[in-house]
Amino acid sequence: MKKTITVLALLAAITLTTAFATTVDEGTKILKIIDGQSNFEGSDFSATLSMISEDPEDGIDKTVVYQFRDDDGDKFLMLIKEPTINKGQGYLKIDDNLWFYDPSSRKFSHTSMKEQFNNSDANNSDFTSSSLLEDYKVVGVDEGKLGSYEVNILSLEALNDEVTYPTQKLYVAKNGNVTLKKEEFSKNNTLLRSSYFTKYQVVDGNYMPTYMIYQDELVEGKKTTIQIRNISTADLPDSVFTKSYIERVNN
Length: 251
Prior knowledge:
The protein is mainly β.
């Protein structure tokens, strides 16, 4: 069963209400819920992503990507279909390894989950399964409103150096425990990126964001919008998550 949920007025001002009405322990439980309803356990996931990147200097670029995920096996594949100049480039993650494939050279090179995806404002880590409970601890909780939505605002600190951002703030809707907004910071607490999740689709009981905006907070007017469609949870062959598969689909 698939159902689309539209989130309105996300860019409105945030109003804080009673501080710490939700405890840190309850905030940790919310992280567990977010992980649980974001990941596809026992089934695979595939979709088509349309990415629009806007840059004040470089203009507007559109990228179409096929996404494949095997959350049980901690694997994903991102295969670029458009534009033609990037067609066939791919990002393959297996466990802790992430490779980038360039069909022009027919070579794989290691890259990092922290790197930007295809020069967009999305990071490679945005496309993997959710591991908030494993990677972060809750250090503070406030209550507030984001637009018309009652939210818990969770302040997070990283538990390891593998994460893209050492600190985050999550704005989580009380109704459904879905993330509406993230604020992502550097070690010195500089706001680097704001991420907005304005539409969700319920897929097999999971909440999948289908419209996201990643906004660069250091460069005014720079952002990437991603729309997800053609979602499927049908089983994928194990061969999809291999280097030979990427090479084969490029022949």
